[in-house]
Amino acid sequence: MFTINLKSIFSIVISKATLFLCEKLLKGGTNFPGKVALKLDNKILKHVTKGYKVILVTGTNGKTTTTSMIYNVLKKSGKKVITNASGANMLTGIVACFIKNYRFFNKEKERFAVIEVDEANVKFITPVISPEIITVTNLFKDQLDRFGEVYTTLEKILEGINHSPSTNLLLNGDEPLLGNLKVDNKCTYFGFTHDTGIKNVDINAEAKFCKNCQKEYSYNFITYNHLGDFYCTNCSYKRSSLDYAVDNILNKDYKGTSFTINGVEMFINQSGIYNIYNALCAYSVCAQLNIPSEDIVTALQTSKSSFGRQEVININGKEVKIFLVKNPAGYNEAINVLGLDNRMKSCAFLLNDNYADGRDVSWIWDVKFESLSNNDIKHISVGGIRAYDMATRLKISGLDIDSNSICENYDMLLKNIEESQSDIFYIFATYTAMTSLRKYFQSKNFIDKLWE
Length: 452
Known about the structure:
Layout: H1 6-26, H2 32-40, H3 44-48, E1 52-58, H4 63-76, E2 80-83, H5 91-100, E3 111-116, H6 122-125, E4 133-136, H7 144-147, H8 150-161, E5 168-172, E6 187-192, E7 218-224, E8 227-231, E9 244-253, E10 256-261, E11 264-268, H9 273-288, H10 293-302, E12 309-315, E13 318-324, H11 328-339, E14 345-350, E15 377-383, H12 387-396, H13 410-419, E16 424-429, H14 431-443
Parallel strand pairs: 1-3, 1-4, 2-3, 4-5, 5-6, 6-9, 13-16, 14-15, 14-16
Antiparallel strand pairs: 7-8, 9-10, 10-11, 12-13
């Protein structure tokens, strides 16, 4: 047991009691117990993280799925490991996670904590603890009212990294913004050497201008959006050498994806290029922690989708798949996954503008909804706080939207699902729309747990 003062003990006890009440009475409460703990002891995180080797996962897209993958690999390899599985990635949620798992008489010698952290909250964690690894998945435009442009997001992350110069950085080498960082940390890179055959960057792609001289990048190939094997023809800046690389994509369809990393073949039951990146990042982290590659492959093969991330739910015999969508880059990749499925399908598009979604919903006009016309979509439903904005966007893209498409509540959406003649019902939802929909499904006994 580590020495701990009475103030911290009181903070932990009260926070644990608050957590218990929130779980029993509110069926949630992933942040509030952390707020209570910090109010009673603003240094509580320092005490409850002692003894842990901490891996922080940050970046715009893929944090929750990558965190889950790393956690599953470490757990299945026999390590003692915790994670903030609910996706509560602000300081208060992270504090609550550690307090929930805190034991006053813990004798475990080696413990790991795989923690998803919001990009703007890294700076609150690293002054208190020195993580073993910080990994950054990518940088896309997201919640512009909160983060601004991608360059601002990078600065927020770097502010946190600069507090912990001894931490190893594991970075997406295909992300131009993450190359040649002016930091003292050791940097390791992952990315693609598999040539996708795509050369031309999309007009709406982000960070496509050289970070040194502002000339537009050229690419040997692009994976998606602005990620890929980039180089600048005006200066010497180019992609860093990769330590871990996807060197071949063997097969991809709606059931999953087969590919190789550094020549090691693996399969994940998630679809899409972006999920290959998530698996690549998880593989790289675990390799850095000296987990044998065969153990990583086995664990990733059996990893289930996180809540709302290509999660499949059975609703009275109907297959329903939920996609969390929150920015153009991720939305376009989700639509690409839809294109891998040749079955007859129906779709629902749920758009909210709560704080956690971002108040500005103008980003939906950068999503390539026009490509949906190439799919066999039998019926479209639209819902959420900004349902009419979404309906307008889909109507402009050429899809068949009328007054019958609008779902004023989840009962109407459920009716559409139950009456659907399609083989599968896809739901694309922003964050608070996804969480509220899952709470509704739980109330109808279609799912057991909110955060799994």
